[in-house]
Amino acid sequence: MIQYELVNPCDPYTFTAPDREVAALVIGALSPMYGAETEDKDESKSVPVLFDGFTKWFEETFHRPVEESTRARKRELGEALGSVMLGGFADRKRYEAALEAIDDPVKKEKFIRVWDDGRTSMNRIGQHARNLSAAVLLSLSEEESSK
Q: Which helix (H) or strand (E) holds 132?
C-alpha cells in the first residue's frame, strides 16, 4: 500500500491506497478541491488539486471514466476511504500501531473518534471519509449478495 497525504487547506490527513488510480478515486469522492501526494512527493503517484478539471484529468490519466473505475475498484475505494486518518505520515505509524493493538471493535471505533477529535478545523474529513467508506462497502456487499 502507498501512503498518501491529503492536500487540503485544513488539518493534515493521510490515507493508504494500492495505487494512484484508487488515490484519485478517493480524492474524487472527498472533493476535487483536494489532492494527494506521497511522502517523497513522487509526481507519478500524486493526484493534483484540480477543482473543475478532475473528471477530464482522471479520464486522460487512467483512460476510462471515473464511474467505470469506481465500479471496477469499488472494494479498494471503500478500503482506502476507510483508511483516512487525521495526521501526517509520522502520526500514521502511531495510529496504525494503536489500531492493531485494539481487539475490541467498539473500543477501536471509540479510539478512532477520539483521535479524530484532535482536528482544529470544523471540517470532519476523517468522519466523512469513513461514512463514504461504509456506504461504498455496503453497496458492494449488497451487489455481491444479490448475485
A: helix 125-145
